[in-house]
Amino acid sequence: MITIVVAATKGGVGKSTLAACLAVCAAQNDRATVIDLDPQQSVEFWHARRGRKNRYPFIAKGVSHNDLSERLNEIARSGHKYTIIDTPPAMLDVISAAIYEADFVVIPVKASALDITAINVTVDICQEYDRPFGFVLNDVESRWKITESALDALSTMGPVLGTVAHREAYVTAMTVGRSGPETADNKKAADAKSEIDTLWAAVLDAARDAVEIEEN
Ligand SMILES: Nc1ncnc2c1ncn2[C@@H]1O[C@H](COP(=O)(O)OP(=O)(O)OP(=O)(O)O)[C@@H](O)[C@H]1O
Ligand SMILES: [Mg+2]
After folding, report:
1. What is the secondary structure of 49-94 as a DSSP string?
2. Domain count of the chain?
3. Which residue owns the Cα nearest ligand 1 atom 13?
4. Which ligand has the minimum distance to the alpha carbon of residue 176?
5. pLDDT tens-digit map of 125-137
């Protein structure tokens, strides 16, 4: 099983929104589980609204950072190929425990100096445990000049997996239990699908490389 952790000590950067999108991608062709380690329970809220028709991914409820390793083993034994874990902001013990279990860590970040400076804490935890990571520049306004300089700054700190635009579809998605691409309509749906598919492909490539390196 490949375990992908979405983490950033900074609040409100899109961890839960992107965890939901990635979990839906993971569940398209394989058995996939999502875990919500955040007491705010954004992903649990989202999953509860997903309903029967779109019931995949599965959700593992009541998992804490203390029994995470054991629960992941159970999920792997039951034949799941992917687990996506959403984490809380600021709670370093929980974030660290999740990163420790990760095959790959996705770090969402917004394009501002405040956000980019703050990612050092998350990067430090990944480096402490020697876990591979990549950034996603999220909530991007393409017309803003700061987007380019944020991408430049980020690329000096680690790999950038992709960008995700500022779209109403991502906000609506969390309320109605769908993913951004599932919620958007017409051309916007194609754009959202394309950026999330690209992100998922980059995450998968990086995670598979990491797992292969570990196995060799
Ligand atoms: N790409 C996007 N476009 C538009 N809105 C977005 C996007 N990504 C996230 N948001 C919105 O930004 C807010 C924060 O997103 P989210 O809750 O996913 O962040 P978070 O990092 O999980 O927050 P927390 O640290 O509180 O858990 C939400 O209102 C969400 O709908
Ligand atoms: Mg969240």
Report:
1. TTTTTT-PSEEE-S--TTSHHHHHHHHHHTT-SEEEEE--SS-HHH
2. 1
3. 12
4. 1
5. 999 999 999 999 9
